[in-house]
Amino acid sequence: MSSQFGKLFRIATFGESHGGGVGVVVEGCPPRLTLEAADIQRDLDRRRPGQSHLTTPRQEADAVEILSGLFEGVTLGSPIAMLVRNKDARPEAYEAMKNVFRPSHADFTTEAKYGVRNWQGGGRASARETVGRVAAGAIARKLLASAGIDVIGWVQRVQEIEAQVDSESVDLSAVEAHITRCPDAKAAAQMEAAIDAARRDGDSLGGVVSCIARGVPAGLGEPVFEKLEAALAGALLSLPAAKGFEIGSGFAGTKLRGSEHNDPFIPGDDGRTRTAANRSGGVQGGISNGETIEVRVAFKPTATISKAQQTVDREGNAVTLEAQGRHDPCVLPRAVPLVEAMVCLVLADHWLRQKAVDVLPTLGD
C-alpha cells in the first residue's frame, strides 16, 4: 500500500479510522525552522469532525502529539513524528456492513485488491487518514511562509450553488467566517441550507474547492514527467472523494482561441514580470511563472449515506443497505484544509528541489 509522498520533503502517513490513532512521519524538513504544536493544531482544528451541524457528529479533539524532530522550539532536521489518538471511535456501528459493499465506496475495490479490508469505518479509505496529511501540511506551510508563500483555499461550489470570490483579495478570516468555508456570504447561506436539507434526507452533496498559492517564485516544477501542475493534480486527486482537477482556465479554456487564451507578459509595478490574465494558473511548461497559482478540485457527494440503497454482499446477493455510522453530508467544508495541505506539501517539496538546483555552479564559474 502506497502511504508515502514527496521527494525531498517526504511524508509517510499511518493509521485507520477506528484504530488506536492516525499520524505521519515527516522527513526532509530543514533544521532550525521555528515550530510548535500550535502551528499543527491550528490546521487540525479546521479539519476535525464535529465542527457544526454540517459535519459528522463524531467528536475528536484531534490533539497532536509531536514525538520527535523538535528541540527547544525548532526543527532538528531529523524525522518529525506526529500522532493523533482516536478517542471517539465506534467500530460496532459498522458491524452491519461487515459483509456488505457500500455503493461507490472503496469497500469492494479494496477487498478485490488486497483480499482483506478493515470494514470498521473504511480503514485507510476513510477520510480520517487525512489527519496525517494536514499535520504534515502545516509544517510545509510554515516552511513556505519563510519563503513568502501563502496558500489559502475555500468552498467555491456546492452542487449548483456557485460563490463569487475575488481570488486576489480573499483571506483566511473571510473563509473562516462561515461554517461552509465559503467567503461569499450569500452563497454560503444557500450552501448551508442545501447541505442541511441533504443531511435531513439521509443524502449527501458534492462540489468544488478552489485554492490559490501567492508568492510562489518562478522556476518550480520538474519537467517532463513531474511538471508542477502534474504534481498538484496527483496530490489533490489522491484525496478521498476527489474526482476532478483544474488549473487556471481549466476546461473552460478549451472554448477560447489561442489569441484569447495566451497570457502576454507585462511588467509589474514591483519590477516582477506579470501576465495579463493568468489563464495558465501560474504554471507554464510545467514550471511556475511567478504568478498566483490557482487550482480547483471537484469532490463527489459522500458515498456513505443513510438513505436506502441497493447493493450486494460478499456472496453477490442483492441487499438493501441503510448505512449506519457518522458521516459528513458534504465533505466540502472540511476538505478545504485538506486541499491546502496537499498544495503546501507539493510546493514545499518543489521549493526544496529548486533550492538544490540553485546552489549548483553555472558552467564557466
Question: Could you please describe the fold and organization of this structure?
Answer:
The protein has 365 residues and is of the alpha+beta class. The protein has a single domain (4-358), classed as Chorismate synthase, AroC fold (4-Layer Sandwich). The protein is built from 8 helices and 18 strands. It has helices spanning 37-47, 107-114, 130-145, 172-175, 185-200, 228-237, 258-261, 332-358; strands spanning 4-5, 10-15, 21-27, 64-66, 70-71, 74-75, 80-85, 150-158, 161-162, 207-214, 242-247, 265-267, 273-275, 283-284, 287-288, 293-299, 309-312, 318-321. It has a 5-stranded antiparallel sheet with strand order 1-2-3-7-4, with helices on one face. The termini are far apart.
Which tags fit this structure?
alpha+beta; single chain; 8 helices; 365 residues; 26% helix; globular; Chorismate synthase, AroC fold; 5-stranded antiparallel sheet
List the helices and strands and how they pair.
Elements: E1 4-5, E2 10-15, E3 21-27, H1 37-47, E4 64-66, E5 70-71, E6 74-75, E7 80-85, H2 107-114, H3 130-145, E8 150-158, E9 161-162, H4 172-175, H5 185-200, E10 207-214, H6 228-237, E11 242-247, H7 258-261, E12 265-267, E13 273-275, E14 283-284, E15 287-288, E16 293-299, E17 309-312, E18 318-321, H8 332-358
Antiparallel strand pairs: 1-2, 2-3, 3-7, 4-7, 5-6, 8-9, 8-10, 10-16, 11-16, 12-13, 14-15, 17-18
